[in-house]
Amino acid sequence: MTDVVVVGAGIVGLAAAYEVSRLGYGVTVVDAGHQGRATDAGAGIVNPLDLVGEQSAAERERVALSGATYYRELLARLADDGETDHGYATVGQLVVATDDAEDGVLEALLARLSGSLPASLADYLGPVRRLTVGEAAGMVPYLSDGIRGALLLPGIARVDGQKLAVCLASALRKRGADVRHGVGELVTVAGEVVAVEVDGERIDTGRVIDASGAWAAARWPRLLGDGVTPVRGQIVHLSYPREGIATTPVVSNVGGPYILAFDPDRIVTGATHERVGFDYRVTAGGQADVLTTALRVAPGLADATMLETRVGFRPVSRDALPIVGAVPGLAGAVLATGLGAHGLTLGPAVGAIAARIAVGQDPGHDLTALRPDRFASPN
Ligand SMILES: Cc1cc2nc3c(=O)[nH]c(=O)nc-3n(C[C@H](O)[C@H](O)[C@H](O)COP(=O)(O)OP(=O)(O)OC[C@H]3O[C@@H](n4cnc5c(N)ncnc54)[C@H](O)[C@@H]3O)c2cc1C
Question: What is the DSSP letter of 327?
Fold first, then answer.
């Protein structure tokens, strides 16, 4: 008998299991190892801002904010467990404009961010400011000299999703958790979870967290309907060996690519957004799109060495909000998915929320807007 079984070992499931363990409960994590785990392909920008746009709901803001700021807590705990190789660093983000229209967008963004912001957001972002084109070029050696303007968000961090997942799994094992390979299927009796079956073996439990990302949609057809869709992202990794390159700010363009740098010399740029189901392929068109948009903003990367192209399936919800909460009508089941393009920012916080719900603790947030049955068909 295990207190809690977590199905899915992406960022959400691993963070959930880690919190379950920290709260003093036994936990088993099961992962099917499907190709296209989003956590491995995620670029890694930890930025709540695109979630707190002018049209955003208050809930969206709160979850986004807790997602970015929760990292401090999580990384401190992982350090206590001896896990520090996660690729998280505060490198800042440089948003660049390539023409006057885009520069107008930067100006509007600066005005918004200079206005009254929630204290935790202002603290996370740091002092946002305009840079001259020369200053921007001094920070990013591969940047186009044709850019029109740049805005620096100095507090933005980036993380290596794949490395963070390794850290979390390793910390879980050190704490005595069972992290295993296999396809998990819920076993229910009379409206209650009683076990998870993993490739024929039964793990008895009264509590399950389903964190199976884009694959969750197929397991909950009535609950989720067409509310969660896999959106394929192809993302290119390059080698660009230069002194100190890993601390280069994230570069993003209003209408185009983002470019991140990691130790020791890895550049990551993307990505495509394609609704093609679970079609795990690198396509000629996808590769061409990513490289063409990247080189428009960062022509200095033209001579970088191609390392790999990763493919991941973002679990995108219909209203672009996460899905987290108890499954109505099935005692003991908690669902946590739908983090879309923001799961590396929000995943640790959403996982921790799911963990607290699973063990009967106060999740610490009003989750009404995120409830799992909001896409359910009426009959
Ligand atoms: C190209 C790309 C770029 C991105 N960039 C960013 C970014 O810069 N910033 C950001 O915040 N987010 C980003 N994201 C989004 C982020 O990566 C995802 O939202 C996040 O990783 C989703 O995590 P997850 O744990 O829900 O799902 P996943 O990481 O997909 O994990 C789900 C796991 O469940 C397992 N599973 C499924 N079914 C079962 C089953 N029956 N039994 C056992 N296991 C099962 C799968 O094998 C998989 O390992 C990006 C995503 C992509 C693809």
Answer: P
